[in-house]
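Task: complex structure prediction.
Instruction: return structure tokens for all chains below.
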Amino acid sequence: MSSKTWKTIRLIAAILVTLIMIFPVYWMVITSFKTSNELRLAVPTFWPETFMWSNYAEAFQAAPFGRYAVNTVIQTVGILFLQINLAIMAAYAFAKGSFPGRDKLFLLVLAALIVPEQVTFVPVYVMLSNLRWIDTFYALIVPHAVSAYTIFLLRQTFKSISNDVIEAGKVDGASRFQTLYRILTPMAFPTIATMAILTFISSWNSYFWPLIMTNSNDMRVLTVGIAMMRDSVAGDEALNFHLIMAASVMIILPIVLIFVLAQKHIITAMSNSTFK
Amino acid sequence: MKQAPAARTKPKVSMASKASISRRRIESLKDFSFAAPALLILGVFIYYPLLFSLYISFTNWNMTRPMKKFIGFENYDRLVSDPLFYKVLRITFTYTALDVFLTLAIGLGLALLFNVSKRFYNFMRTGIFMPYYISMVIASMVFLWIFNNQYGLLNKFIGVFGMDPVNWLQNPNTAIWTLLAVSIWKGVGFTMLIFLSGLRSIPLEYFEASSLDGANKFWQFLHITFPLLSPTTLFLLITNFISSMQVFQSIDIMTNGGPLDSTKAIVYWIYEMAFVNFRTGRASALVIIFFLIIIVLTAVQMILTKKKVHYEG
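Output:
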């Protein structure tokens, strides 16, 4: 076969695979616009008979999603703020600072990467319930205030910045804090932006931790809220998938938006930073 | 090689140098204070809980009772004499092995298929990568709908070929595949991207030289591409293995560990023991066993990295 035929076959295969991969997202969106009756047709429709925008309003009323969204935003912003700032400071200390035991302590930071939250959640729950932090934002935010991975990546970035920059700052009489936040941080902006995006996505999507650490309806985040909404229609869920999917679309919208705006940035960062 | 002078003259202590020593001490204390908050959080929420888990695992602590007693290895004894323990381990490892193998195999296939530097291919790659960032909870909801027994699209689809509908989620033989489907759908895009960056780091001369020797594409894949990709493959193997072992969200949304415990993986069992049955002590023993498995796997794979992996240059 000629190379042109091969190219065409390859293109068709690639298009097919892509369609299969994005189909579940398409199906979610399409389902969210159907009526409950249309869900149960013998032959499923791939385009809604009429677009039921009211499904979105109805889903919004089926559970207090407004409250869940506020909680999710507070959780996400809190984690984002602490993780970035604590990582900037720690990465500076490990990259440019000098104190006894620095490299050993850094190993301790790296070792934390091996410990998943599934290993620490039982004792942390006991600890937080002694502190009476369960069902508060403290429980959602503080245990995730530090990301060893962010510290690791930022340390790499800071290390690549010449010491002359810091010395120049010292000569100008700038404090450590000023040097770090006015000079080093802007220079490390691409790394910080990438880590901020990844942190945003992972705390927006988190489920395990908020499920365990909260128990009142007022403290639920979106992911836990939609799981509870689905549980409330268990058994009859086939009649309610249009509402579940409408809620799902609303929950993933911010993530899709960020992904579309920053995908080039994310993808390059991902492929470059994972194992170098 | 030139040796650096080993002996150093002992500095004479003068007033000035004393002052500089104490100034240096203050400087290093200031440096340390920048790392201190992060270290404190890691200590309180990672290292202390690990030790605390170990302690709880030797007690009969139950969250509903305030009393706790030291009972030695009883929690561990109870676990290893429970047939469910072996079932849970088997399910976890079956799930993990299938998940890792399929995600890597499909991801590599996608990387080879999509290794074309054209704008349209770039666009398609973005579409394939997108599910990686969709919450596992939402992905599980969508698959719950697709796998729905009565109205789900999959059963309608296989019906076209005259097959009977399958009760995917309620059948102990198929339930685990519904979890695998979600995980693979979400994971292959990332795997593809990492394999792609591995593929692009292989020097083109290798292929050119072997083409001149008359090697075909398949031979090149087996003898050049695959061996030179081994650092990438190993990296993906380790990270995927460890994250697959932690499967929880899809189980909690789609199967609740059922039917007949057929999807009860280890983290789900820990969760159930600690937060449904309140057996904090025994759950902690299981946590410790789980953590040891992860450490052993990490160590084994790190040793393998040093021995087997083909690094260029």
